[in-house]
Batch of 2 targets.
Target 1
Amino acid sequence: MLFLELVLCLVAALVSLVGTYLAIVEKDLLKAVVFSALQSTAYAFIYYLLMAPDIALVYIPVAVGLYPLLLVIAIRKCGRFEEV
Amino acid sequence: MIEGVLMLVGSVLILVGSLFDLLAALGLLRLPDLYTRIHALTMGTIGGAVLPLIGVALVAAGWVELGSYRWYLAGAAIVTAILILMLAPAGSHAIARAAYRARSPSPSYVVIDELAKKVRGGGR
Amino acid sequence: MELRDLAVSIVMLSIPIYVLAFLLYVVRIVKGPTVADMVIAVDALGYDLAVFLTILAVLFRVPFLVAVAMVLALWIYALDIYVAKYLEAKEVGA
Amino acid sequence: MDLETFAKFVINVVAVVLVLNAAIALYGLLARPNLLKKIIALTIFSDSINSFAILIGFRLVKGFENPVPPVITSVPPSESYARWFLAKSVDPLPQALVLTAIVINLAVTAFLVALAIQIYRVSGTLDARTLAYEKARRGEER
Amino acid sequence: MMRYVVVFLLSLATYLVFVGSVTLYDIVTGIAVSSVAATVFGRILVRNPRKLEVRRFVELVRYLATFIATEIRAHLELAKIVLSPNVSKSIRPGIVRVRYDLESDYGVTLLANSITNTPGTLVVDLDEEERALYVHWINVRTLEPEEIRDIVSRSFEEHARKIFD
Amino acid sequence: MGSRLLAALSMCAMALALAYALTVGVFSIYIPIELRPLAKILVTSAYNESTPLFSSMTPEIVTAVVWDYRGIDTFFEVAVFYVAIVATAALFRGIERSAPRTSVGLSTIVRTVTRIVALMIVVVGSAIILHGHLTPGGGFQGGATIAVAVALALVAYGLAKLVEHRIDYETSLKVRSLGLLGLSLSACIALIAALILNTNAYVFQNQPKTYAPIGLPYAVDGVLISGTVLLLNIFDGIAVAAGFALLLILLSQPEDVARERVLSSEGGE
């Protein structure tokens, strides 16, 4: 069982790396928010696998439920694209 | 004995569900536009999430070593399944409607489009 | 007892298939031409992750980990309707 | 590779990935011009650092079974249960430290978002370079 | 009164399943939380308390049987489409208009969710004044309105009417 | 898009290679086989009836640390949370009552589902709060959970509908203040009791300590309530939920009215 846990942890870590990189590089802010939701989901999975259900329970509402809302409100008010 | 059979049925359901999940992922990659992809998403949530959750409930109910907690696991799995049955279609409907109204993307591979008259016929 | 071990090994067999499906979903999230495509891929990923967490809670024999799965299944819906409201209305809060 | 080495490898992968995430987020925080992008980068940065604390609290168990969360499930704990729990529980302290940090991060992020919205209302842009240029121009006028 | 009881029971059941044990503490706190939730949500959730009868719950079980049968057929159909070598040749997508004949919000929601939950059909929009659903259908077989209604929504609509109207 | 995916994948490969080098090399992260000494003390003393002077009598060790061992610290972190919300409200002063008259909302299907789900979210959040000392959870988790119900209602129904149902700025401000007041009072409850009984006690004292013989009972009739931990969890949950609701209501005020007010006040100065 420990082997399974470790392999899943590895996969989740790599997925979170992909999510973070794309969230920072992306110029469309709404897409960046979705990528950061992907990264948050991967982090929540890592917390679950590292046996921290307390943190997972507080992280899922905050990072999947409330961060995107704050950012989506701000993006709707302030414009969607980042000029470079 | 009956517990063993329950667990076996449950695990087969989980296996079938995972196969549906793989099919849904393939469909999400292969189908041409958003609306057809949502059909694949539906397969991923009903066949790939609700079915294995019922399987998990059966497995948990049959696993005697878990003690009294197995009923908790089974009940929670069933409730999660009911939640997904309610939430997933509402979410995909919301996304489809918003994408149609925002015209991102416009449905291209369409034989007939009767909604266009209502949404786009009047003003624009 | 034979049956129980058989069932557990079948469940273990399904885990790599799930992980493969997750990776394919991630590919769709990365590729997705529009935001809506990405959001439905995140959706599918989230719901299947909830199932996966339930399976893991049974396999690890730690029962209250299943609460995390339930909470995750409730929240993935939120992202959907935020993005839908963004695309549909002029103000998200209106 | 035996299981202990593999466990070490995976923990190292997670640690490296978290450091890389923090580094990428720091790059975004410093180099991207849009204030909202900076806020997204800031949330990713703080989450990575928090995850690092959780990772430090992880442990291995003798015999390489999987550890259990720090919650006593049989109340009151018997002698044998207490020994078993001590042998398998992960470290609760980093989790307790991170728990409040996540919620406070959210409140601070909300404040930053409010600040960004207010800046947009007043100056009509969220580009850090344009804002700095505006400030310099106003200074010249005075 | 009836509406509060129903909401109370729903929230108590959710509470106890989520908590996962039935001790004295769970029951006391569960009753407290459920009474507060029932007083807050009762008027919002149940508009017409006279419709709460046992017959409707029996109908719910029969609806489930129809639902499962439709699901299996639709899943196999979509799996065939996904696995076919040329995907865009094997589908004929289109958005069709399906009229419905239901009164309550819950009935419409049940109908629309059942249609969306079937792979192959997806409710894109609904028009409450004309009582029509706009359904994205992956394999448009016919363009006759009544035939479309037969294939897509007839069985679900019967059950939804018996359950909620 | 292809080049970006390539960059991300090469980063993954780099992470794997670096981690492999670290594993065979010297600078590996230390993963303990035994618990650290401090954690060992926490794990053995969090629920231990034989050493009542050191125990917090809370089987959930994370909650025990948050609300007992480092209770004052957590209290000041709640104060930081409070200050952030006050700062947002101060930044947006003058526009908090400009709620729109009509709401747009989403379709009927989404509204109906949100209505049912909001009930379940509130119940689940209350369960997380009230079982914070028994299973994973507590005030912060439950409060954030309930806040998501407000967020969903806000998006699905619109702000005007929420104000109609009396979930507005004023109410959430009052509820939040009530939660914070309760938090401070239950922190001092042992102190107040000691003043009345003419003995000693500490602030944030849960169980009896040396030189402070009084404390809240950890069980009532065999039902475990863990002294002040339950009270603190409840009030913290109320404060967090109402605080986030306040933030969301403030942030989702309509933009045209708000901008007008902000610009006019700036011009007036």
Target 2
Amino acid sequence: MKALRPVSDVGGLPSVVFGQRSLMWWGTLGFMVIEGWTTALIFASYFYVRQNFEAWPPLQTPLPSLTIPTINLALMLASFIPAALAARAGKALDRAGVRRWLTVMSVLVVPTVVLRWWDLWALNVRWDTNAYGTAVWLLVGFHASLLLFDVGDTVGLTLFYWLKPMPAKSFSDASDNSMYWYFTVALWAAIYLIVYVGPRIF
Amino acid sequence: MQHIGDTHRGWAHVGALVATCALVCLAACRPDESRSTGSTNVQRGAAPTTAGGEVDLGADDGQWVMPAKNYAATRFSGLTEINEQTVARLRPIATFSTGTLRGHEAAPIVANNTMYIVTPYPNFVYALDLTKPGLPVKWSYNPKPLLASQGVACCDVVNRGAVYDAGKIFFNTLDGRTIALDAATGKPAWDTKVAEINIGETITMAPLVVKGRVLVGNSGGEMGVRGWVKGLDENSGKVVWTAYATGPDKDVLIGPSFKAYYTKDQGKDLGVSSWPPGAWKIGGGTMWGWIAYDSTLDLIYYGTANPGPWNPDVRPGDNKWTSTQFARRPEDGTAVWAYQLTPHDEHDYDGVNEQIIADLPIGGQTRKVLIRPDRNGYVYVIDRQTGQLLSANPYVFINSTTGVDLKTGQLAVNPDKSPQVGKVIREICPAAPGGKDWQPSAYSPKTGLLYIPHQNLCMDEEGVSANYIAGTPYVGMNVKMYAGPGGNRGEFEAWNPVTGKQVWAVKEDLPVWSGALVTAGDVAFYGTMDGWFKAVDARSGKLLWQFKTGSGIIGQPVTYKGPDGHQYVAVLSGVGGWSGAIVAGMLDPRDSSAAAGFVNAMRDLPQKSTMGGMLYVFGL
Amino acid sequence: MHSLFDPSSPQARAVAGLWWWMLAVGGTVWLIVIVAMLWAAITRRQRRLSSDLVRLDDTAHVRTERVVTIASGITVAILIAFLAYDFTVGHALAQHPLRALTIDVTGHQWWWQVLYEDPDPSRQLVTANEIHVPVGVPIQFKLRAADVIHSFWAPSLNGKKDLIPGYTTTLWFQADTAGRYRGQCAEFCGLQHAKMAFYIVAEPKPKFAAWLAAASQAPASPSDPHLVYGQRVFLSAGCATCHTIAGTQARATVGPDLTHLGSRETLAAGTLANTRENLLRWIVDPGLWKPGVHMPAVPLSPPQQEALADYLESMK
Amino acid sequence: MGPSLERNIARTLLITVAIAAVACEREQRNLGQSQSAAPSAFVADVDLQPGPTFISDTSEGPFDDNAYNTAEGQALFEEMNCSGCHAHGGGAMGPALMDDQWIYGSLPNQIFASIAQGRPNGMPAWKYRLNNKQIWELVAYVRSLSGLTPKGARPAREDHMMVIPAPNQTPNAKPKNSSLPSASMFP
Amino acid sequence: MTAPPPHDHTGLPADMTLTDDAVAREAAQLDSIWRDGRGFWGWLTTVDHKSIGKRYIITAFLMFIAGGIEAAMMRTQLARPENTLLGPDRYNQIFTTHGTTMMFLFAVPIMTAMGLYFVPLMIGARNVAFPRLNAFGYWTYFVGVVFLYVSLFANTGPDAGWFSYVPLAGPQYSPGHRVDVWAQLVTYTEIAALCAAVNIIVTTFKMRAPGMSLNRIPLFVWAQLVVSFMIVFAMPAVATGSTLMLAADRAVNTQWFNPAEGGDALLWQHIFWFFGHPEVYIIFLPALGFVTPIVETFSRRPVFGYTALVMANITTAFFAFGLWVHHMFATPVPELGQSLFTAASMLIAIPTGVQIFCWIATLWLGRPELRTAMLFVLGFIFTFVNGGITGVMLASVAFDKQAHDTFFVVAHLHYVLLGGGVMPLFGAFYFWFPKIVGRMLDETIGKIHFWLFLIGVNLTFFPMHILGLEGMPRRVYTYLAATGWGPLNLVATAGAYIIALSVIAFLYNVLKSWRGGAPAGPNPWNSSGLEWAIPSPPPSYTFLHVPVVHSRHPLWEPAVDMPVVTGLRTDRREVLLTTAFDARPDSRHHAPGPSIWPLYLALCMGVMWIGSIFSPYFVLIATGLSAIGLVGWALQSTSTPGTERVATGDAVVELA
């Protein structure tokens, strides 16, 4: 074994960083890719089985309703504002700001999970009725699991901010949380357009 | 379909122009109303001798001796006491419980001041005395059909009625017997077994007596039977002739005198060559519907039922002579002409519906025609001398076919709606019970209109493998039915056979599964499956009167003149049949394929009607 | 009879030709690579000096680079040749003849239903597990599956094609020489995938026509009382709930069509040679020969079994 | 390989062996053709029983808890045209099988008897056409339709038109016997 | 290639050295922070990538043995025609379990496990980026292993093939829970693989030693990085197919694969092979990563064509996703599509060929030393090139329609996987065993092992080429004597027993050497990678100081000492993060310590997936249970007090 020769001291480097400098950002990105790709594959399957039908939704299957999913999408888009503000407060190391905006965000996102139940029934078809029903249920249902996880994450983080003295690292977590939320909503927007709006146009 | 209408628009205009002319002509052909009214008061000691068959008992408007009223099968009565003005005063005069609870599809028969009723299985026969208040039972007869016959009866254990002729009552039992009873005493004159339940044959039809022949056909098209019509000797009950619907010409009684109008129906042994080897032996083509008789041409007319199994993939070819209109000689059954309505039927479009004999002004001349509102959704007008097709217009929404070519007689199939094995084909219209099932229409020569009780159903179908085991169902199709366009499942429709157009229609929520009746009083009667017995204006369809009976009505209303000289209307109430199987068979609505998919369309029926079996007689 | 090495159709021959060519080229490539590797690993080891090998020798490196580049180039060239040859063969195989005898084959767990199509439906012929074809005539197969995915494959005649529920697939070939060619299901289809074989019997045209005529005739009703008894057993003991024998009331389609069973060479989709003894064994306990087979053991007395076997064997 | 790893592996093996010891009847493939004995069928058309108290036979058929045999029964149900009369359990010519009304009893041996011997109102006798094993398989499938067999052994949907809720989604049933007004009404 | 970065990053005096005393003190301090907890609890809670990696490797290798025993049983059954040793039912369960075990429980896990163990060592990191995720991944995998084998012993082993084609594997034709076991097991192992992949990607991008820019990453790490990306894109496909589609069709009656209701049996094949084909490269590319260091070390020569090898890795990964249809040539896929996939399948031979040429060139230029590890590399080329050439043949649609689903394919894939995967793996074992254990494996037994294995593999699988062309289909439990396939099958069975003997020799070697092998020392092969710069076995903290790298072969640098960085805290688990591309020191990261929550959550997953076979309610129950675990996990990560230096904007702020 060769002798060690120090050439550099890293003690002065920061121990809490934001964005792509932080590990958690990369990890979050990794799982976003996995989940996004899974959704893409389900979309591909959705279009694949669609070839087997002369009409879409199939004859005798009603179109999905728009009201609830639209409200849900609006709610999610509205939550972008507190999410962005929370992320900014995080970067500014503003503990009170993070707490405030996370709270507002929680208030907006918790109903989306509840509404998701009605999103499913707004499909107006059962998952076992035909392959169309299966495909749309899986898309909306799979996204529901992401939503549940993400909302749980947001609410949990908010509670921690209220109940515990949060370490400096959590500022970074708050900004990553917002990033993951944007992703979740973006996926929903795609699902909304393809599942709920698409059959009305094509 | 629309483009057919366009093609024949010119023809239709001509038809409309001569409509008035037609009415005048038909009024002339109509039986003399005053004479028949006068004769009903007479206590008839002996019916006209009918061994020769020339006399049409049905001409007597005081009586109702066969379910279709007369050989022309018009279900039209010349009685006028009940009319647009008086009908609102109609009230029940008497009721009678039949003691059975399955689907009551029969017509009460009235002859010589006696009313004869055949119930569904176990096919009790009751003779009710019309001369006494409360219509007491004169006699009753229990033919004791085999219990097991219920297990091979597709679509409920119904019976469509008896027929009166020459002092006898003739009827069929579910287990395949034809029985003649003495009309006065109820003593059996003969009892002939004509069908074999062990191979799936049953009989549900009402026989018809023509020229000393009792005409009977078998049921069981869903059991892989081979369809036939038999002519029995009226006096002895011996089978004189049997005309099969499939197989070699000698079995179908196609001989040298046979002349089909269209080339597609010409050829030797088509009943064999239009099937895969041997499939004709189990190919269906039964006859459980209506027969008409034209005494001037001396021809009987009937249509054969669907080919078996339903799954068309296992029986490539035209599958002759299923779903075919036949004209035969009544004495020996010889086929005179035939026209296959639905070749290679893919959707259970039986051809057993009624054909009404009328003379219509078509193309500037009076044509002797058959008017046939067929199960495949078209009203066919056919020259009854030659079998030439004069018109075929859809009376319901149709997408399974795109029209009938009048030159070739060919039905144009829509390949998009052909069933496939292992794949659900959605929205096939009309559904398997067709535009109209067995429930007979009435034709009023007075208005010139055909009154069609029918359903409005579409279906999803998936072909599955069909395994033939003698005596068990042979279907090979998964079916799911539901309401057709508009959401109403039934309709009572007035149709002008000359113009080929609908005149008016009454939308009904449930399928109209009862027969129709129309009178010279310009009132048309029908019943609904939730139990309403309705009278509508024959010219406008306006509801004039209705009465709620105890169970859904799927029977055939009749009208007659009572011993008191007044007009009465009678109908059996008792829901069932294919459409009412969910109630009559206590089926489980969670299975949308139950009752061959009909249950899916009738999930709400148990909330609207329960089982029953009751005769209702109405009078003023 | 059942091998890529015995091609008996232009199709199989084309593929076999491709195979031998690929084997020759591939084998050469393999040999060169292995020799080079061994040469480098063993021979050169001795010649090398042990000094400072970590540092690069530039001339050697450049030379090696050239060799590696050339080798890669040759690889590309060979692959292009492969591709060209393959496309030629594939294109030839994909050409469907205009006129062909069409045979529908439906795969069941675990047997083959065979139907000879004819524009005249009354001339259709249904049989099972043994397909007679004329020599020198293109045969088009329409392939369907009744339950799970199967694959139709007679290696001496052509490659395989899957039978997939929900699809109708096609395959064609033209047998050149008369003979019996074995084929087998090539897609795992459950318990008895191993015993789901079939035979293709290629015959000269007149012989095929004679076979077709004979096969289309329903067998004569037996007159020998023993055989009559056998037929009665067949019709009443449950055989007729699954099998068809033309000319009788047995018209069921769950199991193979048994009309002319006596003329087939194997039983149970190529599992047993068709002898009376084997037939008897098969009837007595099918599960012994094909565990999991859907055919039940029907409880019959020995005389009934004998009569049944004799009756079935009598239908040549 | 630390000692704790070894201990952990040993522990895992123990759990494995323990669970494996509970042999899974549900997954057994009865491939032999051995005949299950036919029961002494005891059929009650009415609940009234004169004499000593009625003692029911076994409440479980031999294949009730076997998914494979139940599936074989499902195939037979189609192949033997049972579905022609009973549809997919909803009934048609024959009575519904997925409801809680059993004219001739819902016990396995009663259903066995109904299939084997037939019933007077039109149910054919199958004992000359099917062997006992096949009838027992049908019994298991028929009982699964109304939720009478263990849920894990009931079939899921078929690869066909979706016409009934799959038996594995049907709630467990509490059967009633002979609850119809008159058995003779229903074939 | 970019020019090497400047020697030095912070301008510290280049001649500064550490005294032995300081080193010892620091080592003790670090060990107390980094080592696992004590006893069984410590064993359960460890998040050390070395402990987990070792565990992973051992578990996966046990799966190799289990799969091998199944293979031996199958070969015994097929030794003679109409053998009745195993009935079709048992045989189907065994061949399915064999395929499933080998693909999902052995090959992929052992390759990622090698990565999880060695990537940090090779890039100079103290742990992986997400240590608890790593533990979670292992436990999930472990639950899957236990689940499959418990099921097999309970007669619930999957029996529809490792590919589970619908409708055979669907609700109607596979009643019971056998296929459910398969479907859920696959998802477990995919979760494990995904956790490993994310870990390896982030570790590689963010935790490399200063100076290890992308063009200096060892080829082993490149292979792992590329494969991790493949996992991220391939595994979601099979997880979607197996759990969201197949298991859902079976349990809650969805209609994905029911053609009657608009589903499609071919959809499964597309989804499955979209995963299944890359899967082969997921197994094969890491193995190629093993080959390079072995070739370099024993040729005493830097590998020829580093750039070409990296590019080959990347193009192979890219093409791997464009080949899946060549598993479906016998299905009704349009001819044009087939031609495209043929072309793609042939193209992939080019990067593979280039790699082989580069290694041979390295041997050519070097002075090969035939140690056991090197023998396995030669055996790899010998065997794998054969499999590669048959692979090119199978890309031909016309030929594939003959050979598809026959023993020819069995031969091909075993040549590829045993030759291209297992041979390099054995080589890797011989090569790195000293690093993991600190003791050398016996070379003599190693050579016996090698020769038995080489002969066994070729004896077993070569005859199968001929069998396949003679018409013997795959997945048959028996065959008739009349087919004439008996003799070659007997030869193949004999070969299988020789393979078994060779593996026994290896096991003996491992057990013997674990306790009694010659001590290895830090760098027994005089190899060049960073992993050889530390003691064998590596200490808990791995690197006392993070090394600084100036070339691709840090240990072959002429310098006498090793440049390192200092300044990481020694009072908590702290690692150095560098920039993603040129690996400049960027920040310090506080890594989590031991935790029970990964195990807890893995068990929750087990409850969810196993339970969902029986009732969907288990999903809800397990979600509730998981919530507890997630809170625990999150609380643990936030409960590490200490002053942090926070980078906000351009400034760095000290925060409590």
